[in-house]
Design a protein that fits this description.
Elements (H helix, E strand, L loop, with lengths): L1 H9 L11 E8 L4 E11 L2 E8 L2 E5 L3 E3 L2 E5 L6 E7 L4 E7 L6 E9 L18 E8 L5 E11 L2 E8 L2 E2 L3 E5 L3 E7 L4 E9 L2 E7 L3 E8 L13 E2 L5 E3 L5 E3 L8 E6 L4 H17 L5 E7 L5 H15 L5 E5 L6 H4 L3 E2 L6 E5 L5 E6 L8 H17 L2
Parallel strand pairs: 22-23, 23-24
Antiparallel strand pairs: 1-2, 1-9, 2-3, 3-4, 5-6, 6-7, 7-8, 8-9, 10-11, 10-18, 11-12, 12-13, 12-14, 14-15, 15-16, 16-17, 17-18, 19-25, 20-21, 22-26, 26-27
Length: 392
């Protein structure tokens, strides 16, 4: 392996200050917290690759490149990326970059090799088990409160977590149980925060910190639940005409006589990408049944052209087999303004089920992804039941 690396470097394909192939622990350095994540960097014959380790999730990162002495690692299909400006065998420094912001947001990060956990295991073991379902209340910096469900799975001193809200879940969170509570974090390319709490009697209380801060309280409750996601957003009727990334205009009426599932999403949204990962293979397997899917994308980008180019990349990389239409190109565009007839739109993604006459039969706000376990299974069961009813 070392010989291969030397050949790559001496060929001129990479600078002498190449990252050391290893498992690295990075920290994104916010003013109030450092968010840790693990990145395994490897040198291959055809270039460099990396694997982002986010709890139980593994994200393969390719297209790593060097630009004028700076190493750039695109974070999957998101616009965000990592850049390394100072590289040695013992330390990497750079930024977590969000280019869709104006100006681009650049958060400092640094990494060291050889670490295998987000957090070291505490010397003192906890005397409690946090596993189970908790009724949770999140409070943001403005005092606005959100009811949520906290799922915890403790194994020894290790802890996996997920948080469900009425608009979607926080995906994969992991870390350790401490003597008095827990310390966890998440980084998937978009969601990035430290999530920590203290057990006070029967109540958990703590905070979620990244760019912003939220506080929370939670009480163990096996019956904890959220509002029905099929009653939160209403759609009286829907009609649309939007272009694909290559400029072809597609109208809902082009699918007359066929049931249609309308997926409202944005490629910047992790829950939307999770839903894509479910819908794309489902459609390939079930398209012969006669149901269609049309995705309406609302992108956030500096220019409409940048939005189009990025969405085209997502469609290609994700191999989305159904039409993906560019419905919005900036934060100024919204489903409420581009799709008259929608009331109380609360979440990306939102999925609308239409029968053969394109009457609205069900609207599902948000998405519970694979990180939520049984909740993901419940979504899949609801989806299949709804599709079967559309085809009758």
């Amino acid at each position: 392996f070392n010989t291969l690396l030397l050949l790559l470097l001496s060929s001129g394909a990479y600078a002498a200050s190449a990252p050391k192939p290893d498992l690295w622990r990075f920290e994104i350095e916010y003013p109030d917290a450092s968010v840790p994540f693990l990145l395994e960097i490897e040198a291959q014959r055809r270039g460099w690759t990396a694997t982002l380790i986010n709890g139980k999730e593994r994200v393969s990162l390719t297209e790593i490149r060097q630009e004028k002495g700076t190493w750039v690692i695109p974070l999957g299909t998101y616009q965000n990326y990592l850049e390394f400006t100072q590289v040695s065998a013992k330390e990497i420094r750079g930024h977590f970059v969000k280019p869709a912001r104006s100006p681009a947001e650049r958060i400092p990060l640094r990494g060291r090799p050889g670490a295998y956990r987000r957090f070291d295991l505490p010397a003192q073991k906890a005397s409690f088990d946090l596993s189970g379902k908790w009724a949770m209340e999140l409070t943001d910096a403005k005092g606005s409160k959100t009811q949520a469900v906290l799922l915890l799975d403790q194994s020894g001193q290790s802890l996996n977590a997920s948080i469900l809200t009425p608009t979607g879940d926080y995906r994969y969170i992991d870390g350790v149980v401490t003597e008095t509570g827990f310390k966890t974090a998440a980084f998937d390319g978009v969601f990035n925060f430290v999530f920590r709490g203290t057990l006070d009697g029967k109540e958990l209380r703590g905070e979620m910190i990244g760019k912003s801060r939220m506080t929370f309280t939670a009480q163990r409750d096996p019956q904890a639940s959220l509002p029905d996601p099929t009653t939160q957003t209403q759609v009286e009727k829907i009609d649309f005409s939007f272009p694909t990334t290559d400029g072809k205009e597609i109208k809902l009426s082009d699918y007359a006589g066929r049931p249609v599932i309308v997926q409202i999403f944005g490629s910047w949204c992790p829950n939307c990408i999770d839903e894509l990962a479910f819908l794309a293979p489902w459609y390939e397997k079930n398209k012969s049944r006669g149901v269609e899917i049309i995705a309406l994308s609302f992108e956030y980008a500096p220019t409409p052209e940048a939005a189009r180019l990025h969405l085209a990349k997502v469609v290609k990389k994700r191999a989305i087999p159904y039409p993906v239409l560019l419905a919005g190109t900036s934060s100024e565009d919204s489903p409420a303004t581009k799709l008259p007839g929608i009331k109380n739109f609360i979440s990306f993604p939102t999925t609308i089920f239409l029968d053969r006459q394109h009457r609205v039969k069900k609207v599902h706000a948000g998405f519970n992804g694979p990180g939520t376990g049984l909740y993901y299974d419940e979504f899949k069961a609801m989806f299949e039941e709804t599709v079967s009813a559309l085809l009758q």
